Protein 1
Amino acid sequence: MPAVVIANTGDVPEFEGRITFNVIVCVVIAACGGLMFGYDIGVSGGVTAMDDFLKKFFYEVWERKQLAHENNYCKYDNKKLQLFTSSLYIAALIASFIASKTCSKLHLGLGVGFANQAVPLFLSELAPAKIRGALNISFQLFITIGILIANVVNYAAGKIHPYGFRISLGIAGVPALMLCLGSLAIHETPTSLIERKKVEEGRAVLKKIRGVDNVDREYDSIVHACEVASQITQPYHKLMKRESRPPLVIAIVMQVFQQFTGINAIMFYAPVLFQTVGFGSDAALLSSVITGLVNVLSTFVSVVLVDRVGRRALLLEACVQMFITQCIIGGILMKDLKITGNLPNGDALVVVIMVCVFVAGFAWSWGPLGWLIPSETFPLETRTAGFSFAVSSNMLCTFVIAQAFLSMLCHMRSGIFFFFAAWIVVMGLFALFLLPETKGVPVDEMVDRVWKQHWFWKRFFNDEQAVEKREAEMIRPHLI
Ligand code: BGC
């Protein structure tokens, strides 16, 4: 494997290292967490479009679907059906907080909440700064592959009557098992070892994963970060302090915005949505395979570009793209999809194409960066605690969208797409003015090099000079 000097732009220190086989193995295994999450996202939407499943568990939804003059926008509006899809995220929400405790002791864990908490942090700590974005995005890449696999399985299983949906649901155990077995084989990160006072082991692992002997500078930087972190016995308390606010706000907001792009209205309910605009059950499942494929392929764009053009450029470009597509979809439905009857064929095709363009934009921006940015911006002492807020915000918003989308579609009709478009404008403005660029900055240097330099967020840090100035001002009146 060729040696790569891990150099950074500007005045960021250079750490040596290569992209070793070890790094790659760790990334692949850890990213199985993404596969598990993705499969779960994809599978529920597919089975809820299968008649056998509906007949068995949601009979009234199935009956409503059969009515000749069914209401396009409301045929799937059923609280229990939505709860089926969204329940996973409540479970994951609780798990992410438990996982944050486990992660500060050990970087392993099971279940969606556990995996989402552990994997992005694991990847960000392990990756050399110069390619951290690309490595971290392997998590998102596996999420999208998981969704695609679920879509394909649903398409095939949908033809097996009457128990195809059981196959789709049963396969969800496979990636969980892979993650479980894989986690036995992976290294703990040097940071996690050094933090737990296993310093020599930490140095050895660092050498191994970087593939060079001289890791002194990076080792010193990690030790320094661990020393600072060890003074913090209550990370959640520290997280509530003023100086923790910038990364905390960014972590939560990135996840809230990620969900309010409307992506999961599309991911969970793509088959249902495509049926709404007039595709048959089979064609709807097939169309969601197509969007799943677009999702995977577009994530590669992010892998290639994130450490070159930076995070902000991708986020801003995607906002424009997603805004336009949501408005076009909303516009077509408003004009042509009446309460009963189907969309004309040409329109339905345009909707599918627009959904693909929307998914592509999300897949190279808010999708991966919603995980990457929160995992790389906290200082070590609050990293796991802070990141658990990001994960739980994701789960909470995913739950809200999964729970509300079909009812919102029923009541707001095409207006729901304009609702998401409005959110996209807000998140674009946020990214433009308040999101700092983190490309190429080592994780343990974020506070000094990113937050303290940002025009807005720097006010949350009392630097020494400001403290001295204040002290001098307090002393002066006594001297006069
Ligand atoms: C999001 C999921 C979403 C997926 C789509 C992830 O980053 O967290 O909610 O379904 O991307 O690819």
Protein 2
Amino acid sequence: MLFETHAHYDDEQFDADRDELLSSLADGGVGLVVNPSVTAENAKKVLAMAEKYPFFYAGVGVHPENCANYDEHELAQLRELAQHPKCVAIGEIGLDYYWEENPPREFQQRVFREQMELARERNLPVIVHDREAHADSLTIVKEFPEVKGVFHCYSGSAEMAKELLKLGWMISFTGVVTYKNARKTVEAAEVVPLDRLMIETDAPYMSPVPRRGTRNDSCNLIYIAEKLAEIKGISTEEMIRITEENAKRFFGIK
Ligand code: NI
């Protein structure tokens, strides 16, 4: 079964048909879903969904784009929410230097570090969002050698992927790997060993070819698995099996 390691089913784009869609994922070959959150308030909504669906798990964290109001109270809430039995990761956390309106870089870095510390304390893996912030993301990750994680929607170089692999981290690919201009992402995928690969849609965004431009959902994981299988020279079935095993091991799901 396909393991969706990163989708945002709490997004308003799913308001009209969320239950229907989630109930139909198994028919699309999708067996498990991890849905990260972007604030403590949002994490409550995601955990409520995890309580409703047996195949659905949550990440608890504050996203760099949503950290403007982060303070010690929100951190305390995260600490509490992370104890939920269906919380399998701290995420998504990290740095986003792409949008000018995002909170200042130094503040993002503080929020990232405090949540890395929370992951260490709770012994949970982290889901890292790194957009246009490769060097600083790597620096912070290296400060927490006990914390393991995944760089989601990987957009760094093959060289950086090698550094992360040395640290014991996972690399996860979205539909971007299917895009025509994805040379750099394909090169990164080439250097990631099979046992460190995970797949995700990042739904509702980032639909893979041939669904590009439409609302994304986990049934489109198959296109990402196909593309990665082609890059690695194995069958799509093998790729689905391997990425499922990797994600179960990473998130500690039996
Ligand atoms: Ni995301």
Protein 3
Amino acid sequence: MSETVFGKIIAGEIPTDKLYEDDDCICIKDISPQAPTHVLLIPKKAIPRLVDATAEDQAMLGRLMLKAGDIARMLGVDEAFRLVVNNGAGAGQTVFHLHLHILANKRFEEGDGLGL
Ligand code: 5GP
């Protein structure tokens, strides 16, 4: 569980600003925010990348998506936020423990569907 920085945060080995925690996941502020609101929703199960998830993870991943909506509501950004999962170094993934970026309060340009 503690090979990555997120594993260490989940194990309580590294202190962090925790916004939410339950049996499945934790939500923390990103240390290097790319938008005025930038939090990370991290499953406690250490799945390295989205493509490493299996059918066994289906229910947990579903709960994670619903939780992303709850967190957006909790942060007051549920009318406009972006959910990002980087899968693999080529896509910008730097921490190989699956996580969802929740980004908001940034002016997302019309037509820049994938831009950050
Ligand atoms: P990735 O690039 O893997 O999709 O996203 C990793 C994210 O984790 C980056 O946005 C980075 O700023 C964030 N991050 C890396 N180390 C830490 C840390 O120790 N604490 C927190 N809160 N965020 C971190």
